[in-house]
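Changelog note: in this version the structure field was regenerated for every chain. One regenerated record is shown below for reference.
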Amino acid sequence: MGGTFDPIHFGHLSMAESAREIFTLDEVLFIPAAKPPHKVEKNITPEVHRLMMTYLATQSNKFFQVSPMEFLREGLSYTLDTIDALNKKFGAGTELFFIIGADSMADLYKWHKAQELVQKVHFIAAARPGVEVNLDELQKFFGAEGMAHIHQIISPELEISSTELRERVKAGRSIKYLVPEVVEEYIFKERLYLP
């Protein structure tokens, strides 16, 4: 599961656990994005904080692991490069799944080398409130073979966004019960997202 995790929240964790259970995954590897190409112009919290929050949020689930692999690579963080590195690490016998929200799935055809990417990994897309995915559009772009690698699941619909969480902290509002307590404590200890 990739993302900026700025900050990681219960929506991310719930989606990952649903995908793990439905697809009987051996583990879920959280990979915070270092330099996402679609967020180049945006101000992203430094890597060390996003990585630490991800470690803290996932430590209580024995099936969740965290990798800093994208921070160790130069340049923009393309998912294809990450998948290639994971395939090399785990070998051809390992089947990889990439967990995303429905909003990301709707734009999947815009991703870097999307057709090649869909051949190398299965995508698990979790429904998100208010997000409609045009499957016909994806079918036209990826074809039947590509669509065999794109799966949809229904996970608990937790309408939480990292953007909203940052805004709440900036405005002095509570984020309790939206993020794990250890993440909330870390945010306030490190004074993240304050004006």
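Spot check on this record: The longest strand covers residues 28-32. The domain at 2-189 is CATH 3.40.50.620 (Rossmann fold).
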